Task: structure prediction
Amino acid sequence: MVSWDPGALRTALENQQNELAPIGRVLAAAAAHPPRFSTHDWRGEAADACARLQDELARALVAGDNAVAAAARDIRSALNELGV
Amino acid sequence: MSVAHPVPIPGPSLGPDVLVPAPSGPHGGHTTMPHGKLPPSFRAKPGVHRGTTPEQGGPLLVTPVGTTAVATDALYAHLDRLAALGEALAREGRALAAVAAGASWTAVPDAPAAARRSELEVESARASVHAAGRLTARVDRALRAAITRYDDAESAALRGADGAASFVGSASGPLLHALLPGLALLGGAAFLASKLPDPGGARAAAVRTFFLQHPGLITGPRFVEGVRLFSQSLDETTSSFLGAPAPLAFALGAIGVTGVRSSARGLLAVGPVVGLFRETPVKVERTSTTEISSPPVGAAERLDRVPEGDQVRIEKYEAPGEPTRFVVYVGPTETFSPAVGNEPWDLTSNVGGVGGLDVGSFRATELAMRDAGIGSSDQVQFVGFSQGGLVATMLAGSGEWNAAGLETFGAPAGNIELPEGLSGMAVRNTDDFIPMLAGPQLDHHLLQVERRAFADGTPLPTYHAAPAHQRDAYMATAVAIDRAASAAVRDQNAALNAFTADYASRPGSVVTAMTYHGERVEASEHPLDLRGVTMEAPAPRGGATSSRR
Result:
């Protein structure tokens, strides 16, 4: 077990917070608008199989977005806990 | 790859082509179009029915350079989006790995509990991003495979139809021989009838009215497919007619000894015997020279600059310290008469051009290019509509000019080999039979963009017998191209735009537009006037006229 002084701990958490912010923005945008083709453009068995994969992809994007958002929230909580 | 200049017209020398000296001083004019708006020729004029709009037609179908895989612009745009998402997920996955490596809170006793939880959540995010990346790649692969499978199935169906048509053609000689006396009588009667006086043009009007009232006869994918099969099997039919046994006729067609090109040349060899399809020297005169302020932006604006009447327009782009660039716009067929008249943009040039011969419209355009100062090393972008597209493709593929770009609309030019690395696109309406007269698309060095001008259920206009080949039908397709979402189309459109915009935007640049009129020399007889069959309906009384093509 490694012991950190509160200042170094805080700096490391702030760095993580700053690094997570742009990742969160990208994943939030991708999760909000997952790639989907229109059935007007493509129909049939292959299209249905592709659509199922896209549903899985959309769920994975939402899961990634939620996980990053939760991590950001917890890092904020940890920083609050450490105080100024 | 090798590209070839069109071969000279067979037979005795035609005599010299002539460039008429340009009148002194600039004259003429050009109205430039505000960017982002529909070109003037597309906007509805009072009293004139417009055939189609971008919304009335079908989706854009795209065949990227170097492939035969056709898919909608929307699906290719979807693939672009998947590719971008895949890259983004890979990048963010690496960034999450760096975050995780920055601090391992579960190993730090003083770390708050929330920090330890965040470590698990970052790991979970990494796993989700990784899974999303894999799924993105799977969707991409599935979509590409579906496009390829569809293309394979489509190609197999086409090959089957082609094979059947070729087989029928290769065995049709005896039947044609049996029908020959009847066909000869019919043809002779038709030829003589065309020479009879037609007071008031009643006969031509009757033919025109029939086709105008039945535009569906020659408009639509089914008729286009028929034309494709006919042109595809023409070689075998000709061989069989000339006496080749069916297997030999079939084999000659299969190995490409005969083809649309040889059939067209055959027509030009036989035609002059009855006074048709006769080539002549041409003369060209510059009719205007105007300094203009703006280059065209987008396919619709370029199509709008393709001239009619004066058949060639050349824009010269000069920028300080840079080699001069040119854009050559070549106009469509002006008359469909097979008999020689004064017009080089005629049926003879269409047939000879498909045959790979240096026909009147081709030579007239080259004369105009030389007069405009275009040298063999100057970069040139070619734009053409209908026969103009055929001439533009012949010029780009001739090896005589430094072709940088090519954009054609409704051109019967699929059998012309093009050099690699050309920017641009060949645009065809799938319900327009004219491009199929040159046979199927063989060259794939240029982006192919297709679209049905009149979607199922759209009423066909009656202003012209072949509405899907008209300028407004192609203008609608050009507007759809300018709205395209896929990189395959947008990149080529942007490259064509940049060719002129790069220069026009520089300080001290000068853009000059020149128009040219070409005529045949030694036109010895009055041409058959078949315009009533193929041109538009008469303008409503008191109304404006629409563009002819």
